[in-house]
Design goal:
Blueprint: E1 4-15, E2 19-31, E3 35-39, H1 46-53, E4 61-66, E5 69-70, H2 76-86, E6 87-90, H3 102-112, H4 117-130, H5 146-158, E7 164-168, H6 176-189, E8 196-200, H7 204-209, E9 213-215
Parallel strand pairs: 3-8, 3-9, 6-7, 7-8
Antiparallel strand pairs: 1-2, 1-4, 4-5
Helix pairs in contact: 3-4, 3-5, 5-6
Bound molecules: adenosine-5'-triphosphate and magnesium ion.
Keywords: ATP-binding, Nucleotide-binding, Transport
Pfam families: ABC_tran (PF00005)
Domain ABC transporter: 5-220
Length: 220
Amino acid sequence: MVKKLIVENLEKVYRSEVETIAIRDFNLEIKEGESIVLAGPSGSGKTTILLCIAAMLKPTFGKIIYENKIVNKLSREELIEYRCNKVGMMFQSFNLIEYMTVFENVAFPMWIAGKKKKEIKERVNYLLEELEIRKYEKTYPRFLSGGEQQRVALAVALANNPNIVLADEPTGNLDRKNSDKVIKLLKKETVEKNKILILATHDEKIIAKAEKVISLKKRM
Ligand SMILES: Nc1ncnc2c1ncn2[C@@H]1O[C@H](COP(=O)(O)OP(=O)(O)OP(=O)(O)O)[C@@H](O)[C@H]1O
Ligand SMILES: [Mg+2]
């Protein structure tokens, strides 16, 4: 059976002093082996959509469906399994753990998933090597440049070999050379392995090359 991710009538309203409708009536359907780019101006809801798909934000309305199950209605155990093994997110603000070295940051999701020590070592070393940050394996994130931290964040997202990879502005802090490298690794680890890739970006070069683009508009 082909694995599909469907987002149906997604709506997210943030309620603080003011009420913000970050996204309304958003729909998307994507199969394994496919990629989609979410484009749109700042504040158009790209990060909100990715966080809802990652099951880190609860939609106000609508459904996220994966493998015919409604993600926002999963049981606790299923939700842990989904968050831990099915979906990997590369955050716009990196979300690296300051107390851990680069190696430990990337290994962390694998430890949580109960992977064996040898497998963790091989996978982390492979990812750091591919992203040319292996020399920083014992370094703490605060000593790295923005672009280096961004590549660590990508390695974290890919660590558990997730079926769905969500990349939020994955090239925001990178020069062209590193940006091309990151996109190549993202494709190699997702689409080429029959997985789903959803990428949010402002980068015109990435948008121009994308298989499919959804352009979001800023809500007034
Ligand atoms: N935690 C929050 N509380 C209140 N409002 C929020 C929160 N997070 C986002 N918003 C609002 O929701 C809207 C969508 O934000 P979101 O971060 O999803 O946009 P984005 O497209 O990712 O923007 P950018 O390109 O700047 O990253 C914005 O108007 C933003 O101010
Ligand atoms: Mg964003």
